[in-house]
């Protein structure tokens, strides 16, 4: 979990959380006069103390969803505190990042989920190859059951 604190005029540039990058807000939606200028494009969510906002930034096949571009508008008055918790679809560690790039014969051949044999048996390795088998950038959840190691 990370805690962010914004003072007046401080903001967080539009970005994706699946990789750190700055980009322009593309979508256009309704304007709310009480929001700062930056909230006139895209969806805008007003801060309510104690509320949580859940954002999905991957599609069901674990590919990045570009509609998840988001940021934090300038604080107009007072201050803003926010606690951010990232929930990863699979184990995320330097070890796994290295593993995904390593030759498959060098690393332990395992499944990350008990359901993998069942999912593989019903064709999920072919239907959801990114999530199931992985890519050079994403460590597949069912590498063993998909027979890619
Ligand atoms: O402060 C916010 O409202 C957004 C924070 C955020 O997007 C992040 O921590 O990744
Ligand atoms: Fe973010």
Automatic annotation (TrEMBL):
It comes from the Eukaryota. Residues 109-149 form the ShKT domain. Keywords: Iron, Membrane, Metal-binding. SMART domains: ShKT. Pfam families: ShK. It is found in: Endoplasmic reticulum membrane. Signal peptide: none annotated. InterPro entries: Oxoglu/Fe-dep_dioxygenase_dom, P4HA-like, ShKT_dom. Its EC number is 1.14.11.2. Its main location: endoplasmic reticulum. GO terms for molecular function: metal ion binding; procollagen-proline 4-dioxygenase activity. GO terms for cellular component: endoplasmic reticulum membrane. Belongs to the P4HA family. This is procollagen-proline 4-dioxygenase. It comes from Ananas comosus.
């Amino acid at each position: 979990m990370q805690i962010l604190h914004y003072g007046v005029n401080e903001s967080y540039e539009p970005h994706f959380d699946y990789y750190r990058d700055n980009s322009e807000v593309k979508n256009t939606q309704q304007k709310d006069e009480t929001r700062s200028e930056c909230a006139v494009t895209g969806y805008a969510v007003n801060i309510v103390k104690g509320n949580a906002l859940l954002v999905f930034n991957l599609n069901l096949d674990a590919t990045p969803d570009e509609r998840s571009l988001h940021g934090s508008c300038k604080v107009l008055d007072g201050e803003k505190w926010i606690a951010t918790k990232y929930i990863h679809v699979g184990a995320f560690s330097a070890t796994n990042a290295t593993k995904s790039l390593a030759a498959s014969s060098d690393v332990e051949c395992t499944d990350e989920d008990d359901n993998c044999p069942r999912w593989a048996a019903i064709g999920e390795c072919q239907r959801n190859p990114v999530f199931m088998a992985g890519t050079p950038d994403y460590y597949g959840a069912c590498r063993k059951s998909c027979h890619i190691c």
